[in-house]
Design a protein that fits this description.
The complex is a heterodimer of chains A (336) and B (184). Chain A contains 8 helices and 19 strands. Chain A is an alpha+beta fold. Classes of the chains: A alpha+beta (336), B mainly alpha (184).
Chain lengths: 336, 184
């Protein structure tokens, strides 16, 4: 990966991330990235996903969401993100700590965190506004904890999305409202317009899971004043009162299923995908949730299934051999 | 080939459903209708098996073998189809070999049990086929009530496999011995 001329040498990436199929000459080959000029043209023409990446830990506390886009790779939008990594690699220590004058502490305490004595009303994060450079000469104690992320105000296109009000976790649910201009004028954002209809999908990482261990939704359409799965209506002034009916959607764990598999020989619906048939025509979330888990153990399940099939046939064969002598006809002639 | 498979599947479904019904009537009832059932069962079973073979062969033309083995639903469909075929093949041979005596006493009871088992298995096969074509029926609720989610691959733990093989041997050995002792 690091040696790849575009992903490694130009983007400085070390792992293959989400990407769109047509950013590859061969969709099954992650390294067959099309020419940079082709990628630029794809983005300019709108061939990219706009990824609103709200994180409870890395941006919510400062009222921000991260803003990213997916083309040949998962990129951050241009500008400054709502967090940075609080680590001084050269000296192998944090870069920042709590400002003791502003917060009356140098660090959090591990026992407070594990005992869940931190909450939304207290300090559970480190933000630029109350951080000072790390003091290695402070009398640090076992159990002192400094957050790995330093939160800050996002800037530029990456700072387009904000949290409206206070996003809070209560009774097992996050209540989050994100706001962004319909049209930011940025090339790495999708613009919305009245009467527009857009495809969108949701993903949720629960229980501090990262990477692929997350839940996803099927695609939904969003209509701005236009018929769609989710109908958006304009807010003329102030903030919405959210009195309209909820739109419930089901999330599921998709397993390790990638695009080459879906359009390959192993997927019976590959032809439907090529024909542009939506996933909902053949699958629902309930079914895909089971399939996702089965994909994790595909080889083992297939083997056990084959053994079960054979064992069942053996049992029936044994039963047949056992029954046959009793059926040998005692009276000549066919069936009565 | 999908349409052909759907069309052909009607034959084993119809003949096997009829065969199971004829077994019930032939074993449990008396009179003209029961006599007719006993007489006509063998050709119905033969037609059912022929229809099933044609249906299974046509099924392999719908998707690649790799695709068939990759989907939990199609794996289940295959498993139930082969088990159904095995049950009705067994019924065919037993009725053929047993002649008019096949319906009497414990032999008749064995036919009834196998007939009901076969009906359950081919009903599941058809239901799974409906799921595969995007036309599921409420019949799926029944296996779910019994604890099997049809969207998950049907398989048993390894120790159950062992029990199944031991059971197969346990029921086959006495029959094999009796077959060897029986006068030719």
């Amino acid at each position: 990966m690091a040696a790849h001329p575009h992903l490694g040498e130009t983007l400085g990436q070390t792992e293959v991330r989400k990407h769109l199929p047509e950013t590859r000459r061969d969709v099954a080959e992650w390294d067959s990235v099309v020419e940079p000029s082709h990628l630029a043209a794809q983005q300019a023409s709108g061939y990219f996903l706009d990824l609103w990446h709200w994180r409870a830990g890395r941006s919510n506390a400062v009222g921000m969401s991260d803003d990213q886009w997916v083309g040949e790779h998962r990129h951050s939008d241009a500008g400054r993100g709502p967090y940075t990594t609080n680590w001084d690699a050269e000296n192998a220590r944090p870069q920042w700590m709590f400002d003791p004058e502003a917060t009356e502490r140098h660090a959090l305490r591990w026992e407070d965190i594990t005992a869940e004595r931190v909450d939304f009303d207290g300090l559970y994060y480190l933000a630029e506004s109350f951080a000072v450079p790390f003091d290695p000469d402070h009398d640090w104690q076992e159990g002192d904890v400094i957050p790995r992320r330093l939160l800050r105000e996002g800037e530029g296109s990456r700072g387009d999305i904000r949290v409206a009000g206070d996003a809070r976790w209560a009774d097992g649910y996050w209540d989050v409202t994100l706001v962004r201009d319909l049209d930011t004028g940025q090339p790495d954002d999708k613009a919305f317009a009245p009467q527009g209809r857009y495809d969108l999908a949701f993903a949720v990482h629960r229980n501090a899971t990262g990477s692929r261990w997350h839940y996803v939704s099927l695609p939904y359409s969003l209509g701005l004043g236009r018929e769609a799965d989710i109908l958006a209506s304009p807010v003329t002034a102030g903030t919405p009162d959210w009195s309209q009916p909820w739109f419930d959607l089901t999330l599921y764990y998709p397993g390790q299923v990638d695009w080459p598999l879906l359009i390959g020989e192993a997927h019976a619906g590959a032809g439907d995908i090529v024909a542009g048939l939506p996933v909902r025509a053949h699958h629902d979330e309930h079914q895909l949730a089971h399939y996702g888990v089965e994909m994790e153990f595909q080889d083992a399940i297939q083997r056990q299934w084959a053994l079960t099939l054979v064992a069942g046939l053996l049992l029936l064969a044994g039963l047949f051999i056992g029954l046959l002598p009793a059926f040998r006809r005692r009276h000549p002639g066919g069936t009565p | 080939m999908t349409g052909m498979h759907h069309m052909l599947a009607h034959f084993p479904v119809a003949f096997w459903a009829l065969a199971s019904l004829m077994i019930l009537v032939g074993v449990l009832a008396r009179g003209r209708l029961a006599d007719l059932c006993r007489v006509a069962l063998l050709p119905v079973l033969i037609l059912g098996i022929l229809g099933a073979l044609a249906t299974i062969l046509s099924g392999y033309g719908i998707w690649t073998l790799e695709a068939l083995l990759h989907s939990p639903l199609s794996r289940n469909h295959l498993l139930m189809a082969f088990w159904s075929l095995a049950v009705y093949l067994m019924l065919l041979v037993l009725v053929w070999v047993g002649g008019r005596d096949a319906f009497a006493g414990r032999r008749g009871l064995a036919l009834v049990v196998l007939g009901l088992l076969g009906a359950w298995l081919f009903a599941l096969t058809g239901t799974l086929g409906g799921h595969l074509t995007g036309a599921p029926t409420v019949f799926s609720a029944l296996p779910r009530l019994l604890g099997w989610e049809v969207y998950t691959t049907f398989y048993v733990p390894t120790w159950v496999l062992g029990v199944m093989v031991l059971l197969a041997i346990a029921v086959a050995v006495p029959g094999f011995r009796r077959s060897k002792r029986a006068p030719r």
